[in-house]
Amino acid sequence: DQQVKQNSPSLSVQEGRISILNCDYTNSMFDYFLWYKKYPAEGPTFLISISSIKDKNEDGRFTVFLNKSAKHLSLHIVPSQPGDSAVYFCAVQETSGSRLTFGEGTQLTVNP
Amino acid sequence: NAGVTQTPKFQVLKTGQSMTLQCAQDMNHNSMYWYRQDPGMGLRLIYYSASEGTTDKGEVPNGYNVSRLNKREFSLRLESAAPSQTSVYFCASRLGVRYSYTFGSGTRLTVV
């Protein structure tokens, strides 16, 4: 069973607008959440993280929101830029865990 | 500052052949991981090594073996390659359980 799901395989937005990427998880023991970005032919790179004691974390144009009751994680990119076009993966970890579990990924395309 | 280095970058194998994927990190990280990426399935954990001297199975370990040679190096071996092992393989490392991963650039493996 998929413990982490990114239900949108793809998302297309206009440059300058907000991009919202979503991630749902099933296990209430997950307490560390991350987002990675991946360009073609490269490895994923870390973007932003949040622990379960917070509900929001910001880093420049990127903000991650955590809704623990809904078991839902989202990444907001404002304003979106063409260079943000990539695959975005959410990842989760249990309190006692030693590894990350990844979602399927969402392909974001930002159109000029 | 090489980070995580994977070799080779590309490989084509015939069914039944064996090979070893190499991974080395120069960041003094304790934990190392092998993932595979397949379309629509995200990143799935094959094996990991939480610390030097230990290895554990991930979600999809069948058909693979690993060796944590020392703190820097973590290799993945395919003893008898199968077409189902056609994938992109990523090695990752991190300092500890509350840190993000650093990924290598990947090995694209095709088994014919």
Highlighted features:
heterodimer; A: 112 residues; mainly beta; 11 strands; 56% strand; B: 112 residues; four-stranded antiparallel β-sheet
Shape of chain A: globular
Number of beta strands of chain A: 11
N- and C-termini, Cα separation of chain A: 38 Å
Unreliable stretches covering 5 or more consecutive residues of chain B: none
Share of residues in helices of chain B: under 10%
Which band does the percent of strand residues of chain A land in? over 45%
Sketch the topology of chain B as an H/E string, one letter per element: EEEEEEEEEEE
Protein chains sharing the most extensive interface: A-B, 25 and 25 residues
State the separation between the terminal residues of chain B, measured CA to CA.
36 Å
- Mean pLDDT of chain A, to the nearest integer, reads 95
- Unreliable segments of chain A (pLDDT under 50, ≥5 consecutive)? none
- Using only C-alpha atoms, the radius of gyration of chain A works out to 13 Å
Q: Mean pLDDT of chain B, rounded to whole units? A: 96
Rg of chain B (CA only): 13 Å
Q: Describe the sheet with the most strands of chain B.
A: 7 strands, mixed
